[in-house]
Write a structure and sequence with these properties.
ARM-like, oxidoreductase, 0% strand, single chain, metal-binding, hypusine biosynthesis, Leucine-rich Repeat Variant
Amino acid sequence: MVVINEITPKAMLPGCPVKPLGGGEFSSFNIYSKEKIRELLLSHDTDISSKIRCLFFGRFHGDEESAEMLSKSLDYSESVLFRHEVLYVLGQMGLKSPLTRLYEILADETEHPMVRHEAGEAIAAIGDDESLEIVEKYLNDNSPAVRETCYLAAHSLRLKREKRLKESNKQDIDTNISNINAFNTRDPTPPKSSCEVSHIESLASDLLNEDLQLEKRYAALFALRNILTGIIDSNQRKSLSDQYDQQIDNDKVHFIAGEIAKAMEIDKSSAVFRHECAFVLGQIQVISTADTLSRVLSNQSEESMVRHEAAFALGSVGSNDPRCSENLEKMDKLCTKKELDRVRKLSIETLLKYSNDLDIIVAESCIVGLQTIMDETGSLDILLE
């Protein structure tokens, strides 16, 4: 389970599926210099996990030089997964300088739809007003992933434009329009304004409603995630005397996580939506979702972008360390050493199995998922004993 308010390498590199090398505290010793990042990114010999780690180091530096370096790295790799992650990080950095390259990639029909999708999402994350008419060109694109992403991007860009207009006119604004969250990542759309525990069931209903507009299902997804992280944060602040109330709250955590996992597995309407559900499951790291993530990753009829995100999420969920079960169980009675061992073993075995998948996007994602687990514990062999 994700631990809120703890300064960890993952917290300092939001959205990163792999941790800095060196382990332990976040320090200058395990954050690469820009020179080292450039050396590894602009090499054909660097493995996929190390390259992705470098991308998030680039986000940590966060300046124009780093953005230019990340953009240039696109010329050194044909990996769909890597190109997708480059664009994700560029969007999260929020700088306008990569927009021209992002527009080009979005327009390029020879690019994999998963890469074009991420270009559209990154354009929305950057939030420049002039981007609205760009993404609107692709609302009828041949690729469902591209047109749905651009539909959501247009929705997000309109909301941001309205917010800026209201701010300039000193009008009251909906503070929930912000797409930044507890994970310090930029969401594709803002959460629904009703982010109260009492709204969990209605939000879950919206999440599972395939007839509802896509942006409303996204809004429900992010609202549920924010409620869940609020509950976890509250539980961490409670004393041992509050264990009864804490377990009631944990039941809500597992209900929310279960509904998100269900939406990911049973939805038939949108691969983009299913992949976003998987991304959120990777953020929250609730162990009760591991079996569903394993099934989705194992489903070879599922879209690459969904299986990819399930692999990343399974690596995150599987990285809950059984050796920390005593502390985790204080917050969640499901986090027994036996259950953590089972989830870790399931995660490793599933990721290992599909690390040789015929779909290279899935195979590389599984390698990164395994690296996530290794980064947390130092070894896969120890965990399988």
